Amino acid sequence: MRSPRKAQRAINQMVLYLGVAVIVVFMVLYLLFHSFHHSRMATMEKLVQNIANQYEASIDLKMTGDLRILETLGSLLNISDPLAMEETLRAQTLDDDINTFVSIGYIDSQYQAMLCYQTDDSIHQVDMQDYPEVTKALSGKTVITDLIQDPYTDTYMSYYLVPVRRDEQVVGALIASNHVIVLHEIIEDPILNSGGLVHLIHDDGTYILPPRETLVPNQTTNVFETYGAQQQVLDRLSNHQDDIEPFHYMNEDYLVMFKYLNINDWYLICVIPQSALGTNYFVLFLLILLLSIVLLIIFGLFAFYMYRTLTANSKELSRLALHDQLTGLYNTYRFKQEVKARLDKRPSGVVILNIYHFRFVNELLGYSQANEVLMMIGQKLLTMIDPEREIVARDTKDHFLLFLQGDELSIEERLISVMEDLRTYYHLHLKSNLLHFNAGVKMIGDGEEDVDALLSHALFALNEEGDDPEREIHFYDASLQDEENLANYAETYMYEALREGGFELFLQPQLDMHTKRVIRAEALVRWKLKNGTYLKPNQFIPVFERNGFCCELDLYMFEKVCQLMARWHKEGRQMLGISINQTRLLFYRDDYVPRLKALVAHYEIDPRWITIEMIESLMADLPDKIMQVVDQLREVGFRISLDDFGHGYSNFNTLQNYRVDELKLDKGFLSNDRSDTKRRELIVGGLVRLSRGLHIQTVMEGIENQADEDFVQIVGCDIGQGYYYDAPLAVSEFEKKYQEKVVSQ
């Protein structure tokens, strides 16, 4: 028999559960009631909007129709014959079938109005210079006025004014008036037969039409005195926005709709009792209560079932949460937990083993047999590890994760062995050689505690072929990721650097090989980072070549060269020619030559001082197009240099078909192998003599030592360039070191 203490504990638990259940029921009731109320309000607001839209359409239809009548009359009116015009106006005023105008008139350009009224057969002449609305109409605008006191009847009416044109010129305006009762008839249509009201107001709340009835008696000046308004409502009205606000008066709830009409900043206000829009929802509330009780019972039964199920299957749920269902291995989550607990075990590494092109295996073998392959691989991997010290898990469809202890060499040997064992086993059992593997490995270093970062680095190594694409096992190399990070940095900040002057002009001297004097320079670019360090071109130019930004950069550097030469000229310095490399992409742009021409004209630079360098391989792409661009550049006055001649497969037809001024020989001719010097002398010397015969200068770049200089002088090159003479220099340093010497000579 249960002890009293245990029985009391059981009762307390039951009371607690019951209390929780009651709280849940009330919360559900509250949420359901709140949801129903919110839905009901949204429905009522939508209905009020539809009603306001109908009134807006009626007002717009009336005014649009009246304006069209006046526009038609204006086109037919014989303004050159006053008598005929009077008859036309009288006829229109008396024609009740066409319009409801109280009066129609014509205003000439001198503000003199000829008005005809329904109540009077005579024509009235009125001076309307004091009416700003008339000025707007005579300036060509169609005008609908607020209520204005009629100059003849002294009653308040709404006027339409339409400009009258002859030969596209405004010569006058037609004016017509409507009695206020016309608008009253539109807005006093009953709303749902429920006591709703409609008003026309300005955006400051003043009535356009004096209301014949308001919800609050004796409030007929400003609508906000009647229905109230918060500041946010006033702000929305001043910005011509629609709004719906609740209003309570005399134990009745209303919805007040403010509808902007786009006519003289008018607003339409619909005031509708909420009782006319909704239904008595006491019955609905009872239904909701009944539904809540049913839901509570269902919830209780479901909770009891779930409790029994979770209790009975907690171990299975734990296994499913931490293991791969197909192979039974740890999943990624459990792998991370286990690795984190073993990070102090060194040397060790994290491995991602990939089944190469597993999707093809899946397609060829079918889903079922491919799953058997995965299970086989999982079991074989378990046999190769020390279960007390190492871990194996399955990540995605074709990735297995391993934590192995040992140095790089031992881990690599173990992986090679297991890959070979897996291939052999697969071949013996399935008679196929489809199975291939590759792996990415991240060795765990001191202080590394982020398992996600370790896996990310291993994945990076897996996807990085490096210099040997046939290699199956790749160890993470931080320098490779540094290169990728640098490329990402370049693409992220290239436009910012261009805007802020981060790309700087450097000059490398070019020497006359006969006199050893600096006669020219090559323009090169360096990227100065915000920390003051520089990126070299080979760190960012390949990225810009891929994404096309090199076009913007090369044009920017060309303008920098123009600015520099303009400064030299202004300061009275001796001019030095400058050669500048241009990307192949620019030669395909139709605006390329005009832009260069415009830049040298803007900075008043003689284009003969500038040499455009183009790579030889460019000639093979679109030879006719490139030939045309080269000719255009030479016509402007630029010198053309053929860069890297001799790199790859050079074609002497290039020298025949293209008129160039300079041949820049590839530095590959300066071989470190001195055994073939004579052969190189014959080849390069022949090129130099051939170029000289074609009146083409030759430049040898990449001169790095005395032997290179001796070779260049032997073959007779005209100009030399390289680190043997100097590295690329900032402009200020170049000027101090070379240009001033040139000036002094």
UniProtKB/TrEMBL annotation:
Annotated signal sequence range: none
Keywords attached to this entry: Membrane, Transmembrane, Transmembrane helix
InterPro entries: Cyclic-di-GMP_PDE-like, EAL_dom, EAL_sf, GGDEF_dom, Nucleotide_cyclase, Rev_trsase/Diguanyl_cyclase
Membrane-crossing residue ranges in chain numbering: 14-33, 281-307
Sequence ranges assigned to domain GGDEF in this UniProt record: 346-478
Alphabetical list of SUPFAM superfamilies matching this protein: EAL domain-like, Nucleotide cyclase
MF GO annotations: cyclic-guanylate-specific phosphodiesterase activity
Organism superkingdom: Bacteria
Domain EAL: 487-742
Protein's UniProt name: GGDEF domain-containing protein
